[in-house]
Amino acid sequence: QVQLVESGGGLVQAGGSLRLSCAASGSIFSINAMGWYRQPPGKQRELVAIISSGGSTNYAESVKGRFTISRDNAKNTVYLQMNSLKPEDTAVYYCNAKTNQNYWGQGTQVTVSS
């Protein structure tokens, strides 16, 4: 079992920045990759960024150049630095950990005002 606790969401004006954190606990040795997904109002959940256990990263086209995923192995924490935020980035952001199954955090709201 893996437990994920997110923090760092909030309200920000367009052009601003936020940093999300996701702390993992439990069977962290079994994690292959961690990532961030988001679910905008009325839409399906979508991948934002993912980082593998080897450090490789992948981003959705819509956030490339603006968002950066990173991790601190000593703290078992993954971060999502979000810069140049746009109103269309408004969503509930979920942390994800992949083992032989998916684990999800509780979600954190990010609201970008125009």
Please characterize this protein's 3D structure.
The chain is mainly β and 114 residues long. It contains no helices and eleven strands. The strands form two sheets. Strands 2, 4, 5, 6, 9, 10 and 11 form a seven-stranded mixed β-sheet that branches. β9 and β10 form a beta hairpin.
Computed over alpha carbons, the radius of gyration is: 13 Å
Summarize model confidence as the mean pLDDT.
96
**Helix content, binned percent:** under 10%
The largest pleated sheet is described as: 7 strands, mixed
Short key terms for the protein model shown above:
114 residues; four-stranded antiparallel β-sheet; 11 strands; 57% strand
Topology:
Blueprint: E1 2-7, E2 10-13, E3 18-26, E4 33-39, E5 46-52, E6 57-59, E7 67-72, E8 77-82, E9 91-98, E10 102-104, E11 108-113
Parallel strand pairs: 2-11
Antiparallel strand pairs: 1-3, 3-8, 4-5, 4-9, 5-6, 7-8, 9-10, 9-11
Write a compact overview of the structure shown.
By secondary structure, the protein is an all-beta fold. Helices cover 0% and strands 57% of the residues.
